[in-house]
Each structure stands twice: as structure tokens, then as C-alpha cells.
Amino acid sequence: MEVFFTQLTNGLAVGGIYALIALGYTMVYGVLKLINFAHGDLFTIGAYLGLSLLTSLALTDHVGAAAGIVILAVMVMGLVGVIGILLDRAAYKPLRTSPRLSAVVSALGASIVFSNTVMLVYGPNPKVYPQGILPTTVFHVFGLPVPIMRFVILGASVILMIGLYVFIQRTKIGTAIRAAAIDQDAARLMGINVDRVIMLVFFIGPALGGAAGVMVGLYYGQIKFTMGWIYGLKAFTAAILGGIGNIPGAMVGGLLLGVIESLGAAYISMAWKDAIAFFVLILILIVRPTGLLGERVAEKV
Amino acid sequence: MKPDADNIRKGVYAAVAVLWILAPLYLDKYWTDVLNNVAIYAVLGLSLNIILGYGGMFHMGHAAFFAIGAYTTAIVNTAWGVPVLWLMPFAGIAAGVFALAVARPIIHLRGDYLLIVTIGMVEIVRIALINNVFGITGGANGIFGISPPTVFGWKINGIVAPGHYFYLLTVFLGATIILFYLLEHSRFGRALKFTCSDEVAATGSGINAAGYKLAAFVIGAVWAGMTGTLYAAKIGFISPESFSFWESVIMFMIVILGGSGSIPGVLLGAILIIGLPEVFQGLQQYRLLIFGIVLVVMMIFRPQGILPPRPRKYPVDKFEKQEVSL
Fold first, then answer.
1. ipTM
2. Which of A99, B83, B87, B278 has its CA 20 to 30 A from that of B287?
3. Chain A residues with CB inside 8 Å of B286's CB?
4. Are the beta carbons of A66 and A59 closer than 8 angstroms?
């Protein structure tokens, strides 16, 4: 029981991180029908920028741990969001009318550029996040220990997700994003500036990915320039699991995948942990390609 | 009218072929080995070209088939001492059967989805190899001591004499080019390309689209598996790291950058992607960065690749077609 509970809370924390990254995939896919392969690397950039800002500004020393981390996260989100917009301008915008394969290959190219830039700037060895920023208190829930970090990670990702959900569902700009995702031409005819919507999507998605990067740094304490790839693939799996293009789907899919993976690692095999997500991916695409919440029937899947 | 355009092209191909065959006589061991790698990736690129170029399926897990061929060879050879060249067809069949089993349920998936599933597949295969599945893959350390191939009682050692191995690979590459050329211009090749360009129209014309796509997948896999044999026998050692997702990306890029669906394009792609980085060794750490930038720029300015396939010629309007065929 204790193993189960530990793995469940761990899975939820990791799942929150997957969900945040998955949102970036799903939003871009929703509007552009493009798998942004470079998204995982934007997440890595977020983790590294977070580390740089954390050590250079020493925010947590000036304003306290909690406020410092929040300010840090906001700064990282802003920076990574801007990088996301630049990425779209440089690698995707010239290819809007091209065949899909061209955009996919361009995305792969951008991914290679990002991960190697990180490697050249920060070096190929893993970097360590400073320890002891957040207290290592262990809560006891039903008599079972849960490190506070898991609550923080899950709480932060849920807050960000709720914020995004409200933004998408309740505001005028959010409505424009949803409209552009359903039918770009119709949205344009209704006076929606689709280019602005795309720009916004390429800001929000990477910003959330950047926040996830900081969380991974804080949670695991170690970051590597290649990690974006595996996190990106898993988050993409989460997006498909929930139904690609569907924002609540990405959240549910992320949390679910985190829990499945974490329980699978504990009860099936630790060595096969990374493969579990891919089995889930293949299974879901064969059985239910629209995903769990995919009410929108994907054309000719 | 340029009636000699075809002849010029044939002349260039012949010159390249002669240069290729004579090259090891003037190169040292290191550079001959680079050419050997180019040849291996050229065959891999050509086999992927059947799936990606003619079939239009975004398959980014080709390294899995390559790995299965190489591991079949390594396991059988080290366990029972069966000569490696005899194992080539078995390696091909093993990869083909695997491809059939895997591709069957996913063949109907649309472009991007197929891409992601094939990435998942190659990762699962790699993790399975690392985890020493069935206790026969040697785990993360891989398998040592694969014997070099023997042709008519003559041992061809890829490490001691890369020049000899070069000719073995060249024979295989040459056979592959001829076979795939014939395949491209056969009924099968035309049907496959038709399916790729318009699946609905192809189905309407009585083409079993799913069947042709599946067949393309299996043919590509069989060929990658057989190449795996030659790869395993070349250095006598294989490990899961040689079959990572990155290898699949390299094969994918060879086809896309060279010219998807074009045999000369894929060959050029293999030379550029495998050979060229060796020339710029001083820039080692910037290599991938430049590679990434080239990919993005190519997709924007020349998405069809460096040497795209030439439009098919029809005898009826021979003269007009020859004008544009340049």
C-alpha cells in the first residue's frame, strides 16, 4: 500500500509536468496541425534558463523561497515564450502552405539546433540545480509520507492548467484561439487575426513548457541537454492519450500517463519504465486514435 | 531541345561509379572505412526510400529493422557459428516478419501519427535490447565476436582490410540499386507511387492501398535487416547504442535531403550526411548545429531535396518531356 501511494503521488507530480508540456503540443497541433518537435527542447531551455537565473540573480535569497521561485518561473515563462515565437517565425511560418512533411522536418531541424545550442552554451555534462531552496518537509497523508515537493509541483501545474482553461474558455482571445483551431479560414472571415492567434499559441505553449522545465529542475535536481527529447515524446503521448488538439485532454492525459508510468515502473519493471509510455502510445493509436476526450473526430486517422 | 541531356546524366553516373570503385585504391584505411559507412547508409537510405519516398509513409523507426537484422546475425553467428553471409536472408526475413507484425495494425495511420508510432517502436526495440530481452541480446554491452564474412573461402575482415569489405558492400549496394530501380519502374512501384500521391484515386482504380503500403514496409524492412548483417559483420561487435532513434533520424534525413523517391538523390544524401561531416572534423561540436540549420533552410527553400525524382516520361510527348526533364 505504501509503495502504491508513493508511486501514485510521484506519478501525479510527474504527470503534472507531462501535462504542462503536453499543452504546448496540443495547442500548436490544434491550430496548425503540426507536431512541434522542438517543443521538448524549449522545455530543456526553460530548465537551463531557470538554473542560470536562479544562480545569477539569487532571487530566493532576497525575497524568500516561495516568492523567488514564482518570480523565477514567470521570468522563464516569458523568455521561453519569446523563443517560441521566434521559432515559429524562423522555422514554421515560411512553411504554412507547404506539405506537412516539410514542416515536420523543419521542426526536427529546429529541435537539433536548440539541443545543440544548449550543449554548446552549458556543456555536455548534466547540471545540478541548487539544493535546499524549498524546504524538504515531508507531509503525512493518511499516515503515509509525501514530500512537500510533490504537492508544490502538482499544485503549480494544476493552477497553471486551470488558468489556461479559464483563459481559453472565458476570454475573447481564448475564443479566438478555439475558433482558429476549428477552422482557420472561417475564423479569418469572422475577423479573427489568425496570425496573432498563432503567435499567441507559440507564446503560451512554450511558456508552459518552460515552467515545466523549471519544475523538473527543482524536482529531480539534475538537468541534461538531451532530456527534452524523452520528455517531449512522453508529453506528446500524453497529448494523444487525452485527444490531440483537446486542451482538457492534454491535462488528463498527462496526469494519467504520469501515474501509469510510475505504477508500471514499480509493479512491472523499472528497466522498462521508458518503454511503458510508448506501449501506451501504440495501444491508444490502435484502439482509440482520437484519444480519451477526443470528441472531435480526426479526419482519416 | 537538348537531346544529349540524358547522355550527360548517364556519363556523370558512370564517372561517379568509376570514381567510387577506384577510390579505395587511393585512400587510407580510415577513409575507406568512411566509404564503407557511406555504402551501408546508402543501402539503408534506399530501403527507407521504398517506404518514405515511394510509399509516402513517414517512417522514422527504420533503425529498428536494421537492429533486428544485425542482432539476428550476431546471435546466430556467435551461438552456432553459422557463416554470416548465409545469415543475410534470415536477418532479412526476421526484420520483415517483425515489420509485418508491427506495421499491420498501424499502416492505416495518417502521416504524423505514423511518424510518432514508428518513433515509439524504435525506442521500444532499443530498450528491449538494453534490457537483454529473452537473455540473448547481451544487454547494454551488446554482442562481441561476430565472425567476418567469408567469400569462396576468403575471409573479408572489415577492420583489418576495409578495402576488401568495401568491395563486398559495393556489390551489395550495386545489386540494391539495380533491384530497386527495377522495382520503381515495375507495376508495383507505379501502384505504390500512385497510392502515395492520391490514395483515394488509387483505391478507386482498384489498387489495394493498404496491401501495397504494407508490402513496401516489409520490403524496406527486409533490406534493412540484410544490411544489418553486413554492419554486424563489419566490426564484429554490436550494441544497442548503434541503433538509437538518432540513427533513424539520420536515415530519414538521407532520404529527405537527398531527394525523396529518387535513387541518385538518396545516394547523394548518404554521401553528404555520412561522408561530409568527416571532412569537417575540426568543426565537430558545431556539426549537429549546422545540420539542424541546414534542415530548416532546406525545407524552406528546397523541400523536394537536392536531387528530386525526375518526372516520369511518356513516349507520346517525348520531345516536350525531354525539355522539362532537366
1. 0.82
2. A99
3. 116, 120
4. no
What is the C-alpha separation between B122 and B109, in angstroms, rounded?
Answer: 17
**Are the CB atoms for A242 and A291 separated by under 8 Å?**
yes
A276 contacts chain B (CB < 8 A) = no
- Domain ranges for chain A: 20-226
pLDDT in tens, B89-145: 999 999 999 999 988 888 877 777 888 888 888 888 888 888 877 777 777 788 887
Which one is predicted more confidently, A130 or A143? A130
What's the one-letter identity of residue B193?
K
Closest-CA residue to B108 (of B262, B230, B211) = B211
Q: What are B154's strand-pairing partners?
A: B151
How much is the pTM? Answer: 0.86
Distance from CA of B127 to the nearest CA of A (A): 7
- What phi and psi, each to the nearest 5 degrees, are found at residue B156? -115, 100
Contact (CB<8Å) A106/B295: yes
- Please check whether residue B115 is in contact with residue A104, taking contact to mean a CB–CB distance below 8 angstroms: yes
Q: What percent of chain B has pLDDT over 90?
A: 24
Other C-beta atoms closer than 10 Å to the C-beta of A183 total 11
* CB count in 10 Å sphere of residue A240: 32
Per-residue confidence band for A100, with pLDDT thresholds at 50, 70 and 90: confident
* DSSP sequence for chain A: -HHHHHHHHHHHHHHHHHHHHHHHHHHHHHHH----TTHHHHHHHHHHHHHHHHHHH-HHHHH-HHHHHHHHHHHHHHHHHHHHHHHIIIIIGGGTTS-HHHHHHHHHHHHHHHHHHHHHHH-SS-EEPPSSSS---EEEETTEEEEHHHHHHHHHHHHHHHHHHHHHHHSHHHHHHHHHHH-HHHHHHTT--HHHHHHHHHHHHHHHHHHHHHHHHHHHSEE-TTHHHHHHHHHHHHHHHH-TT-HHHHHHHHHHHHHHHHHHHHHT-STTHHHHHHHHHHHHHHH-TT-SS--SPPTT-
- Measure in Å the smallest separation between the Cα of A200 and chain B Cα atoms: 22
Q: Are the Cβ atoms of B299 and A275 closer than 8 angstroms?
A: no
B68 neighbors B95 (Cβ within 8 angstroms): yes
pLDDT digits (tens, 9 = 90+) for A137-163: 777 777 777 788 888 888 888 898 899
- Exposed/middle/buried for residue B239 (C-beta within 10 Å: 0-12, 13-18, 19+): middle
Using CA atoms, how far apart are residues A274 and A232, in angstroms rounded to an integer?
Answer: 12
- Rounded (5°) CA angle A173-A178-A181: 125
| Contact yes or no for B47/B62 (Cβ under 8 A) | yes
Taking the CA of residue A106 and the nearest CA in chain B, the distance in Å comes to 4
Any idea which residue has 561540436 for its cell?
B285
CA distance B214 to B212: 5
| Residue of A89, A278, A280, A288 best to disrupt the B interface, most CBs of B under 10 A | A278
